[in-house]
Write a structure and sequence with these properties.
- By secondary structure, this protein is an alpha/beta fold.
- It has four domains: about 160 residues, no CATH class; about 325 residues, Rossmann fold (3-Layer(aba) Sandwich); about 250 residues, Rossmann fold, CATH 3.40.50; about 130 residues, 3-Layer(aba) Sandwich (Rossmann fold).
- The protein contains 32 helices and 24 strands.
- An eight-stranded mixed β-sheet has the order 3-9-10-8-7-4-6-5.
- Strand 9, helix 16 and strand 10 form a beta-alpha-beta unit.
- Helix 1 packs across helix 3.
- The longest helix is centred in the first third of the chain and has 24 residues.
- The radius of gyration is 33 Å and the shape is globular.
- The chain starts with a helix and ends with a helix.
- E1 component of the 2-oxoglutarate dehydrogenase (OGDH) complex which catalyzes the decarboxylation of 2-oxoglutarate, the first step in the conversion of 2-oxoglutarate to succinyl-CoA and CO(2).
- Belongs to the alpha-ketoglutarate dehydrogenase family.
């Protein structure tokens, strides 16, 4: 049966060379739906082999096309000559094409990529002639090469195999056949196969590579001799990383790149600072000597420090920025992406041609940290794409000194996670600098060509332990016995260049001596450094420096202009079908604009964005439901019910207005919040907001809060105006939908490092958001934003309060009560105020004043005292909160409240009382009946304790 089908195929005109596109389209249709093609074609396609020899439909389109074309041509020739339809020559031709494909798929498993030769490389049967029913007897037979870039259409099998071995099984192991796009695969095949993965570099280029290797090794040996045993996380064993970085930056500059942002953990960081970015060696020595290098704040260890400089490239001056980052390894990756996106937006660079992100990883962290997956997942999304990132893994082949690859991951390579976005991966032997150079060039060219992520796996080793005080042989005896005898990459490269007659041993020695002399003299050793940089390439932070804390800012706005903007943000063009509930929201907003209806939260918030845009401030808002808002209060994005397209009124306020960016994020907190932090640190004039779906969910990004948002300024003098909107409030929705963990933020507050606010009216959120950008002070803002208050009938404001008001850190008691009759003051924050006010009204308790603390940090002591000083007959002060006793603002803030109470009346601070839920391990009750009873009790306690 099969023989008859094959005969039919080859006799058919459909497989002729001129109709190969028709066959290709049929095959593509078959892959989507086998029943959609004729029976004879389906039966043939079912039998097509893949490179491992099994029959499957999962065959790459390009190799299949080659099989159709080559076999069809040979079959026609054979038939014309009267040859047998199943001739041995045609069968072997098919097998040769399969062999070529097998090398493309699996050659990397045989490649010589491990400098220490520790890799347990299992045999790859697909690469044996016998697997494809070929033998040594066929080596002199000529075969068609198909799409293999050999320079000829036909060659002896031995030449084909030799070329495949050189291309895919030497110092570079290529993984790219997992990519679906045929054009990308063809492009990569051509780049490697045309030069056998070993292009001929000029003498000058290779001498430059040696000079950079000398710099890399020279710095480490100098520091090792001067500071033995001191932590520096040296690069020894991975010195090829420095010429790699040098080539990336220089080549990117040639493409017209103007800025490069780099993220990396500890390994090799000091080397990059000195030899790539041009940090003066004398400054590094000062840090080793323990001298204080920042005037304010705590500072940080030297291998967490960032730096920026300008270097000269063939395409002109390029600004380099190495991001500050803590010991949380991969968390810096999305921060870099955010910084890059901000720079691209500033340059109106949507395709990423002018700003390049480079993220440098460790092998164990790349495989082990979940934020790596999140960063890859965001790479092609509208909100977070940056035109492709060059990822470099400094693969020491051991994560920590005690770990083993079997315990570090479940995948063959540490880089397998990158396949999820079809990123090509180049495994390269760090002891072959020429191969490193080639892989680097192809990687950058791929990124520039296809605007996608690419990974270079620099397989090397670590000559010392996890740090220089560690003795690695205790747990890695076999590896370190080899390392002890293994010459450095520079030593091996010098030997190669001397043997090739490129230089002498004396030349190499003189190169090292010159570098050492420059280090000792404190000279810059980054040879492309621009001493007088073009400051136009920098992000201008000067207007935002040196401002002390002030809670008061004029955020008023002309009423007529306010109403004009309110009308504009409610305009929806004809032809857009608006969903019924959304239409009602916009109708109500038009009434609010006209003054016929009080302003609710959604109206005031979106109007704040409109006024900031009108005043020249771009606005960026992302999160999992931000377009409509998790609780459907915002609807800043209108979805056309007729065709599914979207319209954003805030993007159409006026011609030439600043950017208003709003995107629903993918389901991530950690990477997304880190991205927005990176964006905000690079866009000081913008209002940058991340909104959690529920405030509780920020705990998936706790590391970003701990390491960047709360401490970035005091550690690194890094200013940031990021705003976090965290829906918070006890509505009976259970432990994961009630609390944004207010207490965690307050525990992190010190030195005026950030703001924590709990606004309770539309006017308050309007002025709070405006204050965040209008004033020049740049501090992170954490907003405990409401849920039920979004539509609460009493949580409304007037247009006059929006136009002429300001953000009040303390809202005084509402109503006209005689201060002399007030015996108790209840202090609170958030929506519990409305429960307290209703209970007071229902029970006629005019002897109680209720004050709202709208800002909990920096704590407004003066404003609070001013609000209560008239109550001279008070005998009790109560703090009331919805959160349990061990959570919320009680423990972090009670000392502030006591201090104010003492000022009101001596001894009053000692009588400060608590009303709230009892201490609990969970943030909230999971049963509505329990929630209701707890809420009733805490409100009554506030009045009757």
């Amino acid at each position: 049966m099969q023989q008859g089908i094959m005969e039919l195929m080859w006799r058919s005109s459909h497989v002729s060379g001129s109709n190969v596109h028709y066959v290709e389209a049929l095959y593509e249709q078959y892959l989507d739906d086998p029943s959609a093609v004729p029976d004879e074609w389906r039966q043939y396609f079912d039998q097509l082999p893949r490179p491992d020899g099994s029959a499957t439909r999962d065959v790459p389109l390009a190799p299949t096309r080659e099989q159709f074309y080559q076999l069809g041509r040979q079959r026609r020739t054979a038939l014309a000559a009267g040859a047998s339809s199943d001739s041995d020559e045609n069968r072997k031709q098919v097998k040769v094409l399969q062999l070529i494909n097998a090398y493309r798929f699996r050659g990397h498993q045989k490649a010589d990529i491990d400098p220490l030769d520790l890799r347990d490389a299992k045999p790859v049967p697909d690469l044996d002639l016998s697997f494809h029913q070929l033998s040594k007897a066929d080596l002199d037979t000529e075969f068609q090469t198909g799409s293999f870039f050999l320079g000829v259409d036909k060659a002896p099998l031995k030449e084909i195999v030799e070329a495949l071995e050189h291309t895919y099984c030497r110092s570079i192991g290529c993984e790219f056949m997992h990519i679906v796009d045929t054009e990308e695969k063809r492009w990569l095949q051509q780049r490697f196969e045309s030069v056998r993965s070993k292009p001929k570099f000029s003498d000058d280029v290779r001498k430059h590579v040696l000079e950079r290797l000398t710099a890399a090794e020279g710095l480490e040996s100098y520091l090792a001799s001067r500071y033995p045993g001191t932590k520096r996380f040296g690069l020894e064993g991975g010195e090829s990383f420095i010429p790699m970085m040098d080539e990336l930056i220089q080549r990117a500059g040639g493409y017209g790149t103007k800025e490069v942002v780099i993220g990396m953990a500890h390994r090799g960081r000091l080397n990059v600072l000195v030899n790539i970015l041009g940090k003066n060696p004398s400054e590094l020595i000062d840090e080793f000597d323990g001298k204080k290098v920042v005037e304010r704040g705590s500072g940080d260890v030297k291998y967490h420090q960032g730096f920026s400089s300008n270097v000269m490239t063939p395409g002109g001056e390029v600004h380099l920025a190495l991001s500050f980052n803590p010991s949380h390894l991969e968390i810096v990756a999305p921060v870099v992406e955010g910084s890059v996106r901000a720079r691209q937006d500033r340059r109106d660079d949507p395709d990423g041609g002018k700003v390049l992100p480079i993220n440098v990883h460790g092998d164990a962290a790349f495989a082990g940290q979940g934020v790596v997956m999140e960063t890859f997942q965001m790479s092609q999304t509208r909100a977070y794409r940056t035109g492709g990132t060059v990822h470099i893994v400094i693969n020491n082949q051991v994560g920590f000194t005690t770990s083993h690859p079997e315990d570090s991951r479940s995948t063959e390579y540490c880089t397998d996670i990158a396949k999820m976005v079809q990123a090509p991966i180049f495994h390269v032997n760090g002891d072959d600098p020429d191969a490193v150079l080639h892989a680097t060039q192809v990687a950058l060219d791929y990124r520039q060509q296809f605007k996608k992520d690419v990974v270079i796996d620099l397989v090397c080793y670590r000559r010392r332990g996890h740090n220089e005080a560690d003795e690695p042989s205790a747990t890695q005896p076999m590896m370190y016995s080899k390392i002890k005898e293994h010459p450095s990459s520079r030593t091996r490269y010098v030997k190669r260049l001397v043997e090739e007659g490129l230089l002498t041993e004396d030349d190499a020695k003189a190169m090292m001596e010159k570098y050492r002399d420059d280090l000792v003299a404190g000279n810059h050793v980054a040879n492309a450094l621009v001493q007088k940089p073009n400051t136009a390439l920098f992000v201008n932070w000067k207007p935002y420096l040196g401002h002390e804390w002030s809670g008061h800012t004029d955020t008023s706005f002309d009423l007529k202009r306010l109403q004009h903007l309110a009308a504009k943000m409610c305009e929806i063009p004809d032809g857009i079908g608006v969903q019924r509930q959304v239409a009602k929201i916009y109708d109500d907003r038009r009434k609010m604009q006209a003054g016929g209806m009080a302003a609710n939260w959604g109206f005031a918030e979106t109007l704040a964005y409109a006024t900031l845009l009108d005043q020249g401030h771009p606005v960026r808002l992302t999160g999992q439901d931000v377009g409509r808002g998790t609780f459907s209060h915002r609807h800043a994005v209108v979805h056309n019910q007729k065709d599914g397209t979207t319209y954003v009124p805030l993007q159409h306020l006026s011609d030439g207005q600043p950017r208003f960016t709003i995107h629903d994020s993918f389901l991530s907190e950690e990477a997304v919040l880190a991205f927005e932090y990176g964006y905000a640190t690079t866009a000081p004039n913008d209002l940058v907001i991340w909104e959690a779906q529920f405030g509780d969910f920020f705990n998936g990004a706790q590391v970003v809060v701990d390491q960047f948002i709360s401490s970035g300024e005091t550690k690194w003098e890094r200013l940031c105006g990021l705003t976090m909107l965290l829906p918070h409030g006890y509505e009976g929705q259970g432990p994961e939908h009630s609390s944004a963990r207010l207490e965690r933020f307050l525990q992190l507050c010190a030195e005026h490092n950030m703001q924590v606010c709990v606004p309770t009216t539309p006017a308050q959120i309007f002025h709070l958001l405006r204050r965040q950008v209008i004033r020049k002070l740049r501090k992170p803002l954490v907003v405990m934003s409401p849920k039920s208050l979004l539509r609460h009938k009493e949580a409304v404001s007037s247009l006059d309060e929006l136009a002429n008001g300001k953000f009040q850190m303390v809202l005084p008691d509402q109503g006209k009560r005689d201060p002399a009759k007030i015996e108790r003051i209840i202090l609170c924050a958030g929506k519990v105020y409305y429960d307290l006010a209703n209970w007071r009204e229902e029970n006629g308790r005019d002897d109680v004043a209720i004050l709202r603390l709208e800002q909990l940090y920096p704590f407004p002591e003066e404003e609070l005292f001013e609000a209560i000083q008239a109550y001279t007959n008070v005998t009790d002060v109560v703090w009331c909160q919805e959160e349990p006793l061990n959570q919320g603002a009680w423990y972090p803030s009670q000392h502030h409240m006591r201090a104010v109470a003492e000022r009101l009346k001596a001894g009053m601070g000692g009588k400060l009382k608590f009303a709230g839920r009892p201490a609990s391990a969970a943030p909230a009750a999971g049963y509505m009946s329990v929630h209701i009873e707890q809420q009733r009790q805490l409100v009554e306690d506030a009045f009757n304790l």
